[in-house]
Amino acid sequence: MARLLVVHHSPTRSTRALLDAALEGARHPDIEGVEVQVVPALEATADDVLAADGYLLGTPANFGYMSGALKHFFDSTFLQVGGALDDSGGAGDGPGAGPTAKRPFGLWVHGRYDLTGAVRAVTSIVQALDWRQAYDIVEVLGDVDDAAKERATELGGTLAALLSS
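Given the sequence above, the corresponding structure tokens read:
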């Protein structure tokens, strides 16, 4: 059975609403053969990443960046799961050749002011892991309305459906 790992930091009603919507899509009854493992970002381990076939990431945009919790997830797992570093010790521009390379990922980000830095930070890290973006990033600025929830549901459903085939 394929495994979709959902790593998130959802401390607010808004981020929790996006998480719930993404999980609704990922657990849709028409999608079979996919286990959805949900792990808060501060608890996710390299073993969780290595055991998964795809990844769904969720974060608030805090001060123009991903949450500290999601950053901790990447910091604590990056090298163990095959991330590439450049000479400065930062995420390398080239793809990693690790065991998780080419696996699909999806991302949702919620913020009140600006999402640019958070999206850029996550996408640069997953590029260094050589994960492949499987669906449009769900960027929600301001209130989480029904349209935003629908996009998050589509995101979760798409990732799970990709793993079921």
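The helical segments are 13-26, 46-51, 68-77, 116-129, 146-164. Try to locate this feature in the token string yourself.
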